[in-house]
Amino acid sequence: MPWIEWYNSLAKPSWTPAPGTIGLIWQILYPVILISFGFVFLQAFRGKVSWVIALPFIINLVANLIFTPIHFGLRNLNLAAVDILIVWATIIWCVIAIWLHFTWVSIAQVPYFIWVSLATVLQLSITAMNWGRAAPGSDLVFGFQAKFGFEQCDDFLIFQGFFDAPLCTANKI
Hints:
Number of helices: 6
């Protein structure tokens, strides 16, 4: 089942933004994240701030980037809820860690924090509203069975990851 059909089949709060709105907000936030996080990483490489200061930025970036594969690829609402909580908590950690060094970086995180706060409440709501429901497109509740597999195509194996479309149609293993 395509990800959008799966997402549309989930019970969601009435105030859930449309997928297009969610995408637009991230398009606005990602440049701010890129500039501010990139600045912190550059300062850490130059030795002007400790890597301990950069650590919450690294954790946040990783957690942010893996949310979509967890939520829409694995279709694992529980793990997505844990991940978004990590994103939310590390934004607070980022603001505190960098405040005394580069206050503007902390202030730049305010829109990101507001959006992730809303996204966190939304994800926790969706997780709770779908609790105990088998995730469509998976065999176990919330996609604990990862949607990975291998296909054999012309005598070699191809890893099939998050996407619904098969990579080839012959000789499935």
